[in-house]
Amino acid sequence: MNNIVHYHHRRRATLSNHECIVCCSKAIGINFGVPTCAPCKAFFRRNARRKEILDTPCHHFDVNSLKEKNTNINDRTIRYLQIRQCSSCRLRRCFEVGMKEELIRTHEENERYKNLVDNNRKRQEWLKQLQQEKKLSIVQHIENNNDLISKFDWRHLSNIVYAYDTCCVETYLEQRVNMFAHGTSQKELLMKHYGVLPMSLIISLISFLRSLPAFQSLVRSNQSFLCQNNIRRLIFANLHELNQSCFSEPWQIAIYKSIWEFICGPELYKQFAHIEKVAEKSMIADPIITRLWIIVLFFSTPLFSDYDSQSTTIKVKKNLSFIDIQNIYATLMWKYLLYRHGPMEAVRIYSNLILIFLNMLRVEISIHIRLQMEKDLAPLDKALDELVKLDINADQ
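The chain above was modelled as a monomer; its predicted structure follows.
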């Protein structure tokens, strides 16, 4: 009887990766190109280059006699026994199913692989240790940050938030009550009251800034300089903070939109609306930070400089008192950012504030130019300038 067993080839796509393609036992993964069990993997690695094994006669038992003795035995079990007991049949089966000799690593390649595994393990341990140290440093940073802000600083921050709420927010809400009567037609509002909205923003902002002891400590000429140069440049930033602080009915929001569209014009309003959306997404919703930021900007020298048409030079008033006050509020803001968010997040938030304000300033200056150039809007531009001048010259 011919004892040589011819195995039926099966398409690899029909085989499960959970079954050894050589002996049909449980596979541990893809080895040398095909799914195999651990013993077949080890057998092929040891014997793939020993071609003399293929020429060795098969010495496995008689298949027919095995079937006669065990009527319940199936072909899969028979193949498993034959493959495991005959090296020649097993190696031949390995090549038939597509195991690749060239995928077996040489001794030098094994050494390099072991070194690579060892280096990767050491790197993972180092990264794990680094992550633990980072977590520890964050905890220490939070503990150390408890000393960043003194009781005096907390009292100062509390006073700023309270001053904005009681002066700016309440003044704005009072103006808003008188601004529009519910049910008034939108056309009538645009024709008669479109200037009330920007004027109310200025009035509420001046009320807040004038309540600051730092502002009151300045001489009248410096107060006048800051208001005339910087108040109108902060309308957009103040509008954003008021929108965050005050609830508005849908009909009020629709009126605001119509007024700003009328003031800005179609093209400029697109920029205006875009910056509003960016600010809502990117600016942090923390009243302490946004209100401190408005104060820091107000004590700048100045936010917008007028040009002398004859000399083409910028008129800038350099005043150390402005810089000293701005440094106090900027330092307080930075300490609060570090306390709440840590160094990296503080830098990100500060960068966002600067970027958004620069875009707001660009749109606000464009609105200012439009108010000066459009005949129908020129009275509003003049009223806003007069409002700043008259307010600052009022008796304190």
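The radius of gyration is 40 Å.
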